[in-house]
Design goal:
Elements lengths: L1 E3 L4 H11 L5 E4 L9 H13 L3 E4 L1 H9 L3 H11 L3 E4 L8 H13 L3 E6 L10 H13 L4 E4 L19 H10 L5 E4 L3 H11 L5 E2 L6 H8 L4 H16 L1
Helix pairs in contact: 1-2
Length: 243
């Protein structure tokens, strides 16, 4: 999942022409969708979909809709504009389970893919890990196709990362012990985070909040075309051939 903080049509076309085969989702970060001219936004959405890539607005936009008591209108607008997915998050606000379930169901009923997110953007708002585990299971049970693990665009001091961008180890292990890793998307904007996840879980681990200009660099990391993972991938392939 690529985070787009304001690319123009030419930049999106270049990105998808070059790396579209390796991109599944394009997220228009935060609430930036509201700042586009509508005709331009619709053209950008259409362009992205023409490459077979899903596109959706950032979760902060939905949080604003909830604060304004306009959740149904927001979801209908997203569908009308051509978005193919939606993110249900409460990284900044507090959201009741009832509202969360209603958002998931309303979006799914309109044929939108639903991603939810767990974790807070500020470490001061953090909840116990057991509550996040419960939330993940509830989201999946109510129709979320993937759950995003918060990491912000910085990858530091948010969600399950410490101030240096390292995983909070006990929380990570608790998460992995309770949830199928294939149902998670890890926001991992930093190369060290990406590398650790790839080496531990393999090249198909779901990664998000990847800067556009790093799409090919990440794919190279996945398949051993960078020194950081070359030996690991080569050894794995050699072992497969020797069996």
């Amino acid at each position: 999942m690529i985070i787009d903080k304001g690319l123009g049509l030419g930049a999106v076309s270049d990105l998808l022409s070059t790396a579209g085969d390796y991109i599944d989702f394009l997220k228009l970060g935060f609430g930036t969708s509201a700042l586009y001219n509508q005709a331009l936004l619709e053209e950008k959405i259409s362009l992205t979909k023409s490459f077979g890539v899903d596109i959706y607005p950032g979760g902060t936009f939905l949080e604003i809709a909830i604060l304004q008591n306009k959740l149904p209108e927001y979801i209908r607008m997203a569908k009308h504009l051509g978005f193919t997915a939606i993110e249900v998050s409460d990284g900044t606000i507090n959201m009741s389970s009832e509202v969360r379930v209603r958002a998931i169901s309303a979006a799914a009923d309109l044929g939108l893919k639903v991603f939810t997110e767990v974790g807070k953007k500020s470490s001061t708002d953090k909840l116990p890990i057991r509550l996040y585990l419960k939330q993940i299971q509830q989201d999946l049970d109510h129709g979320a196709c993937k759950v995003i693990v918060e990491g912000r665009e910085s990858g530091k001091n948010a969600g399950f990362y410490d101030s240096e961008g390292k995983f909070i180890r006990d929380e990570m292990e608790a998460l992995l012990g309770a949830v199928d890793c294939g149902r998670l998307i890890w926001e991992a904007p930093l190369k060290d985070q990406q590398q650790e996840l790839i080496l531990r879980f393999g090249p198909n681990i779901n990664l998000g909040n990847i800067p556009p200009f790093e799409a090919l660099a990440l794919e190279a990391l996945r398949v051993g075309l960078r020194g950081d993972t070359l030996c690991s991938v080569y050894k794995g392939e050699k072992q497969q051939l020797e069996r």
